[in-house]
# Entry
Amino acid sequence: MELSWGRRYVMVEPTHFRVEYVINPFMDPADQPDPQLALAQWRDLVATIERLGGTVEALPQRPDAPDMVYAMNLGLGLVRADGAEHVVLSHMRYAERRMETGSAHPWFAERGFATSYVGRDGVGAHLEAGDAFAFGDALVVGYGPRTEELALKHLASDLGIRVRGLRITHPGMYHLDLAFCPLDDRRAIVCPAALDEASAAAVLALVPEPLVLTEEEALTTFCANSIVIGRTVVMPACPDRVRAQLEEWGFTVVIVDVSEFHKGGGSIRCLTNPVDVRIGRDLPSVPGGEVVLPPV
# Structure
């Protein structure tokens, strides 16, 4: 069964996108994105999403927040069981990005979203929403480089859901969205090399039919950093082997070039934040919450 979420996205127009500092292995201030090309690529991505039946709402980018264009990390957008919209705002690991929520918070609130943080007023634990995906019976959350393990406990108890943690150990796949992409209720693109041994085993056990990427495929093509709208996978690139498997499963692959954004360490998923995951439909309600971690 195809994903029931991934049709409503929040994005940030790249009017101030640049590489100003280094917080991941892809960033090099000597290799700056072309502003006009980046904007054209972003607009092509928006048009593709809308052509496929999705919707996009865009925030303006703060001049002092060059990474804000990676909207996936603004917060975890959800629809509660009673229909109320809610976003758990990120508390970024690096101070260079923390001002982004200063603009995201009022923007979401003005549109009727309840807003919250994990922990105490957003300082109790680091959470970056690019580490979190609804899949199977849980919110699957990567932790380690950016999101802290403590955040998983808060997410589970605050939202009343099950959270399955995966420990990320690869420096180049610092967010789970670089190594994990749900495709439907049984399938996902996964790169076990992003994880420690126990978590790699856990994710392969979790996904009934995984499309397993090599480390090289994940790092050189960003192909796990894709989005799915119905039976269409919108990807920045797609190795022939990966395309063949996706098409065998009945998916259509659409390529959108967002290579200027790879210079900042993100791709299509990083640029798009789905806010239509529903508790009770996509995430089972679990009274009191529950955290499931891989064995140590």
